[in-house]
Amino acid sequence: MQSSSALRIVGWAEAEALVMPLREAVFVIEQGVPAALERDEFDAVSRHAVVTDPAGRVVATGRLLPDGHIGRMAVAADVRGCGLGGRVLEALVAEAVAQGCDQVVVNAQVHAEPFYRRHGFVPEGEVFIDAGIEHRRMRRFCRGAR
Question: For 85-111, how does the pLDDT look when each residue is reduced to its tens digit (9 = 90+)?
């Protein structure tokens, strides 16, 4: 799936209609996040990764806020484990570097910490609850900064 999928980084005007069905399926339906919390004021100012399969279906997404915060990482249930999440994450890190960020931060769901660790993120602080789900802040330095 990974090699046959296309990844683009786009603004919200293009991303909204593409990514919201996937985000709603993953966060609202699967994870029980209240629908009112799924959209926020940061979508409009973020860059969005959009991965489509050969049929044009959006199968993975994530966003990068101007301050280097990565979030709203979602992969369609039927293609999880195929490397698409890592591809989205690395594309967003590269976009952050292109925008001049020397580090990126995620508020990772606790169950996803191993995924982020494999991509160079280091946990910081205590576990906290966001939208009823346990999270931990994780950071990755870019371009050799420390």
Answer: 999 999 999 999 999 999 999 999 999
Taking the CA atoms of residue 131, residue 29, residue 44 and residue 42 in that order, the dihedral angle to the nearest 10 degrees is 10
Size of the chain, expressed as the number of residues it contains: 146
Of all residues in the chain, what percent carry a pLDDT higher than 70? Answer: 95
72, 46, 69: which is closest to 61 by C-alpha? Answer: 72
Distance between CA 89 and CA 91 in Å, rounded? 5
Q: Over the range 65-79, which residues count as b (16 or more CB within 10 Å of their CB) and which as e? A: beebbbbbbbbbeeb
Q: Count of CB atoms within 10 A of residue 30's CB?
A: 11
According to the model, what pLDDT value does residue 37 have?
Answer: 86
What CATH class does 6-141 carry? alpha beta
Token match 């769901």: residue?
Answer: 109
Helices then strands, each counted (H, E), the chain: 4, 7
pLDDT of residue 127: 95
The structural domains of the chain, with segments of one domain joined by +, span 6-141
Cα separation, 16 vs 55, whole angstroms: 19
